[in-house]
Design goal:
By secondary structure, the protein is an alpha/beta fold. It contains eleven helices and twelve strands. The strands form two sheets. Strands 1, 2, 3, 4, 5, 8, 9, 10, 11 and 12 form a ten-stranded mixed sheet that branches. Helix 3 packs parallel to helix 4 and helix 4 packs across helix 5.
Length: about 325
């Protein structure tokens, strides 16, 4: 009997491609974009290649994404005015609402996802109104729910194809689903940040969005990194029961095992969020000559797919789409 030779199937690039189980394509990427109310695009020191866009710059970047075959973007807003309740999040002329209308008018086929949260809009950087408690200031969960619901409706009214609540407030998906249905937007899906950890990988995003908490941190409402699978499954199950259409795991790279467990348990589409810190580490290491950026990024994105991701939210989306065309 001849000896087994798995290497036969790896001998050439064509053979390797023929037998791959995991494939990447630009259509499964979601490009995160930051939009501000000023003029001109602004650099972000911790995220090379990522910008805060004004509206013309945003439209140019969406055109770039469309030309590369990327069909989805998610918008994060940086308003000029912030207050204790984040009122600009649901204002009719709020920065994201205006951006949604502009993008959908120019690119009707582009799927526009709206990040539905308050942290970019509050003057304290938390995801809802603050209340004093025994351990200090914390977010008033139930006071945040109607504000998140108002924001989702405002985003849907502006033309958002999907709303994506990221605040990690208990029962936020139910509040948003009921508000959307009641306002006549029953067809708008909810992409739940179902399993979202209080992670150290978010640092660059907080500079980009101007959303670093001025008091305390988000550990009382985002998930404990050591919480384990039971907490992750419970959070995901609650969102499914409340009407979520997509489930997300955030961050993705450090929680591949969690993604796999959640994907195996539920039948909803899975979204991996390749977050700002993961992006920044690869950029810094590649700039220092420590690794091959293209090879590392594509390997990482492949890992998300292998762990169960149906879609990948990533700041590498434009580069990855170019590399896949080569």
């Amino acid at each position: 009997m001849s000896q087994p030779r798995p290497r036969r199937l790896r001998r050439t690039a064509a053979l390797r491609s023929l037998t791959r189980e995991i494939r990447l394509s630009a259509e499964m990427f979601i490009l995160p974009l930051f939009v501000h109310e000023g003029q001109g695009d602004q650099t972000i020191s911790t995220m090379p290649g990522v910008l805060r866009h004004d509206l013309p710059g945003l439209l140019a970047r969406v055109q770039e994404a469309a030309d590369l075959g990327i069909g989805s973007v998610i918008l994060f807003g940086i308003p000029d005015h912030k207050d204790a309740e984040g009122s600009q999040a649901h204002a009719e002329q709020g920065v994201v609402q205006r951006a949604i209308r502009e993008v959908k008018a120019r690119f009707p086929a582009m799927t526009v996802i709206a990040d539905t949260c308050l942290c970019e809009y509050t003057d304290h950087g938390h995801c809802g109104p603050l209340v004093a408690g025994p351990g200090g200031w914390t977010v008033d969960n139930d006071a945040a729910l109607p504000l998140l619901a108002q924001t989702a409706v405002a985003q849907a009214r502006a033309g958002a194809d999907i709303v994506a609540p990221s605040a990690m407030m208990d029962n936020q998906v139910q509040a948003i689903r009921e508000a959307l249905d009641g306002a006549g937007f029953g067809e708008v899906p909810v992409m739940a940040y179902a399993v979202k950890y209080a992670s150290g990988y978010y640092g660059p995003f907080r500079e980009a969005a101007g959303s670093a908490p001025s008091v305390g941190d988000r550990a009382s409402y985002q998930m404990d990194p050591a919480g384990g699978y039971r907490e992750a499954l419970r959070e995901a199950r609650l969102d499914v029961e409340q009407g979520a259409d997509y489930l997300m795991v955030k961050p993705a790279l450090a929680y591949l095992d969690v993604m796999r467990v959640v994907k195996d348990e539920f039948e909803l589409p899975m979204v991996a969020y390749n977050v700002s810190g993961e992006y920044a580490m690869v950029k810094a290491a590649s700039a220092a000559g420590m690794l091959d950026e293209k090879r590392t990024v594509l390997e990482t994105l492949t890992a998300f797919r292998r762990a169960g991701a149906d879609a990948i939210m990533t700041y590498h989306a434009l580069d990855a789409a170019r590399w896949l065309r080569e």
